[in-house]
Amino acid sequence: MSFFANTQELEMVMKGLWTAIKEDPDIAGPLIKSGLVVRFHYREPEGRLTVDCSDNQNMVIIWGECDIKPDVEMFMKSEVAHEFWRGAVSVPMYLIAGKIVAKGPVNQALSLLPAIKPAFKKYPDVVQQTLNRTLVSK
Amino acid sequence: MNPFIFNCPTKVCFAEGSSSSVAEHLADLGAKSPFLITDEFLLKNNIIAPALSALEERFGKVSIYSDVPPDSDLECINKVAKNAKDAGADSIVAIGGGSVIDTAKVVNICLTLGGDILSHQGLNAIETKLFPLIVIPTTAGTGSEVSYVAMIKHHVEKRKIVFGSKFLAPDIALLDPMMQLTLPAKLTAATGMDALTHAIESVVCEITGSSFSDALATEAARMIFKWLPVATADGGDLEARSNMLVASCMAGSAFSNAGVGIVHALAHSTGARFNTHHGLTNAIFLPHGMRFNQSVAQAKYAQLSRQLGFSKTLDDNEGTATLIDSVENLLKQLNLPSRLELIGVPKLNESELQQWANDAVDDPSTMFNPKELTVQDAIEIYKRAY
Predict the structure, then answer these.
(1) Quick one: which of B23, B236, B375, B386 is 20 to 30 A from B115 by CA?
(2) CATH number at residue B279
(3) What letter would DSSP give residue B333?
(4) In Å, how far is A105's CA from the nearest CA of chain B?
């Protein structure tokens, strides 16, 4: 069973998390510098989030459908996203297992992984604030 | 024990002269109109003759593309894919080294799925079975005959494009040592060092490695240390060629499951810029990469050193040092260059070095490495390897 009961919960948490990332220049800086547009496709429950850093100045976070053409698209179950942000996912292992699908120039996208790792610490607070749930650390 | 996944979807057939069984295997896969991808040297020197005549006997006239460059690029892919489509191909046979085999894998995507090839780049982005693909490696090094990955150069942007999916793995790999008898000594040595790098790097991929990949990598390394000098000294030694062919395939299966590490990352960044030979570049970086990883991977290196009979000590530092010495001695024995300068890499200024190091750090191979690589680490390794 997924941690997220429905799309609304998924949206609240993911938007909340990315907003927190955007507000932290140490984490947002390398992402903005990359100039990438990354789209996350979640399933079970469904959701779509686009992070647009294409102007190298700002990070724009869009939930749902949008016309912006992504450079990289990541496909995964919402539960995988949840486990990822908890820091409990080995990305190489999940890629080998096919649990994460990455379309586009993956070199650039994967190179951002170390940059977003500090956001793992923000995730429990975001979940607490948005869903009023406490995460037990793994 | 860590959780792991081990896959080897490719059927591997080894026999002297097995290339002539290609038509029979292809027919078993339901193919009716195969397309053959190879290189000019193999075609001109009749090395592909046994396979080609078997194919023509079974399927009639076979369309061939033989102009694959040593480091295949998008331009080549588009050309080959068009030829294959025009010929009405429903299957592919690749006879050649890593570049030919990777070209065949990517052409197979175009042929089966159509569309812009760049729209298929990525990891696990291909989610359906492709047309039958049989590969006959003519070098012993890349492991591409059993891997799920293909790397192609973007000829305009000068970067590597990665395709990775279990559906990219060839259906059948025919290992025929007779196909390797004309491989020049230098190429034998350099491609063999590529295979050794696969074996050694995969052993220290802690997260994704397993007893399965370790067993294949260890035995591959043992065979390579024993037989690579023999195959290099006497290209006509069929026993040495056979052992190298099998070892390379085993190392290929090991790294396809466990991954490779920073040695490949550094070699990819170097090769993309200066067109250096992949195996040779790996060979130069291998001892440096091992020294870099030593602080976190010495137990695995030392274990490998003991398994290969290089050391008996239980001191991991000493065991690792012995393994690194053995790699360096092998390089000397093979008469391969040990510094980047000797393979035509120019001395980079600070800004070029920074860019080169950025690309190495961004390479997906670093994801599997047991120790994180920083830009500064990469620059220091470059300076030591130069």
Answers:
(1) B23
(2) 1.20.1090.10
(3) H
(4) 6
Q: pLDDT tens across B332-379, in order?
A: 999 999 999 999 999 999 999 999 999 899 888 999 999 999 999 999
Residue A32 belongs to a domain: yes
In a domain, A135, yes or no: no
Residues 69-128 of B with CB under 8 A from A: 119, 121-125, 127
Nearest to B362 among A91, A93, A107 (CB): A107
Residue range of the domain that includes A118? 7-126
Query: Got the DSSP string for B165-181?
Result: -GGGS-SEEEE-GGGGT
Residue carrying the six token digits 């190091």 = B357
Over residues A65-115, the pLDDT tens digits come to 999 999 999 999 999 999 999 999 988 889 888 899 999 988 888 888 888
Cis before A45 (ω within 30): yes
Contacts of B372 in chain A (CB under 8 A): 114
What would the mean pLDDT of B178-204 be, rounded to a whole number?
Answer: 97
CB burial string A67-96: b at 16+ within 10 A, e below = eeebbbbbbbbbbbbbbbbbeebbbbbbbb
Q: What is the ipTM of this complex?
A: 0.88
Is there a domain that residue B75 lies in? yes
Nearest residue in chain B measured CA to CA from A108: B362
The range of the structural domain enclosing residue B52 comes to 11-179
Query: Best of A43, A107, A108 to disrupt the B interface by mutation (most B CBs within 10 Å)?
Result: A107
* A96 vs B122, B208, B361: nearest CB: B208
Q: What is the pLDDT of residue B335?
A: 97
Encode pLDDT of A15-52 as tens digits.
999 999 999 999 999 999 999 999 999 999 999 999 99
